[in-house]
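Lecture 7 notes: from sequence to structure.
We start with the chain below.
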Amino acid sequence: MKISRSAYYAWLNRPAQIIAAEQLHLYRRAKTIFKQSRNSLGYRELRKRLCREGFKVSVYGTQKLMAKLNLVVTQRVAYKVTTKRKHSDVVADNLLNQNFNPVAPNQVWAGDVTYLRTGEGWMYLAIVMDLYSRRIVGWHIGKRMTTDLVSKAMIKAYNLRQPPKGVVFHSDRGSQYTSKQYRRLLWSYGVRASMGDVGACWDNAVVERFFGSLKHDWLLKVPQPTREHMRKDVMAYMRYYNLERLHTANGDLSPVEYEQSSLRKVS
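Predicted structure tokens for the same chain:
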């Protein structure tokens, strides 16, 4: 190994480094939390999670911790347009105008469709997000990117939340959202449609950010051999995202925690 005899004996006689039980617990929890996120948490988010569990660790300390434990985050990729509208369909006005922070639940929802690749072929995911808490309140996954796909996501959201009439649903101008079938569904629920400009990802930035996290923080970290495996993995992320993932916009609470804290304040 090209090491001198003296260096070997110096290493042999050197006392082993003793790690305190608290430090060892910190290492284990940091690794576990990072693994649960599928290696997606940056040092800021990891520090927030550790501090919530009672650990006293600084920003710089978390950076050193991640370097020591070799906790490396995978970067995301750029936005890509997935839907196009039929020019014969009616387009709704943009009621949102990039105002992504309603003051109460069930005031403004947003949604979109994204593509997911498996070993058996493509799948498509439609979601409905409540912008108040960033909670996913409805979603549906299928083999075809149809109006049925986005309709089922909206039906699930409506059945879960039972919103008052007048809630705004914001989307892009994809043919699924501009179709007569979907417009009739929104009308029957008393939901007002809102649509962003063509190809302007910032008009639905919160939803696009969610899709980025779903794919590049979660789905692309493991093989997706079958459509059924993808379906179950998406379901697992929905639980993780709604119940555990901390959001800066929510005061470092998960979507469900943020809604529950809001209810306690009201009561």
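Points to note: The CA atoms of residues 34 and 41 lie 6 Å apart. The chain has a mean pLDDT of 87.
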